[in-house]
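#onboarding

Welcome to the new folks! Below is a worked example of what a typical request in this channel looks like: someone posts a single protein sequence, and someone else replies with the predicted structure as tokens. Don't worry about understanding the tokens yet, we'll cover that in week two.

Example request:
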Amino acid sequence: MLRNIVIRRSLAAAAVLVVTAVTAGCTAQAAVSDRPAGADAKPGSASPAAAATPSATDSATPTQKPKDTATPGEQSSAPAEVLMASGSKGEKVRELQARLAQIGWFDDRPSGTYGPVTTAAVSGFQGKRGLPQTGDTDTVTWQRLLGMTTKPTRDELNGKEVNKPSAKLDPRCKTGRVLCISKTTRTLSWVINGKVQSTMDVRFGSQYTPTREGTFSVFQKSRDHVSTIYHTPMPYAMFFSGGQAVHYSSDFAARGYNGASHGCVNVRDKSAIASLFNQVHTGDKVVIYW
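Example response:
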């Protein structure tokens, strides 16, 4: 009898958590722990409990590792030659910064000076690829970066534009109406029947409050949503999994990748997300992948 009572109370508590997560929403954290360029603040102290609880109908797949992780041979090889490090200056450093910008790891204007921001960017890039996080650009790091980016244009080197490589569409994004969200390129592409209609920058949750990966659908839209947990605006919110949503973030617009959400997909281009909000229908597919 006592055991049955305990089980019933546990199920009731779980149900309350699910309902709370769906209505709560999420907002920006102080800083992402695996910090990209521009992140001079210390990692945020948000606890895992801050993340929204998945609903019973979530269709997320288990978290997958990025496809560009280092191979065992790279990790066990002899120390690589350092090409650039803190204090280095010149056009090669400017190229490094422009290439890092292409894949979302450098959010400042290329300066040609290898300072703390560049060191943090390189360290974060290395960590994501399973390389030693020295912050120095060695031969292994440089070759990995070359393989993921294109030669920067003059405008990129001068900080006038950033030519991000196109995200490779996941096969799940090639049919129907899909919010196709790549964690590799940090982009959201609005895709209809395999054709990309628009693309915009996005950022995700930290390692403590990760954005879920998998296939979902938009189950609620809220143009002027306000988080019931953090009491912060979440304009143009499109909820896809519990309290996680795609929405505009003024913090992302102001500070770039020097921060993270509590699991939501943040967009910093307000006009782009406003247009997207008007096009997306409840029931449209959401795919989040590496």
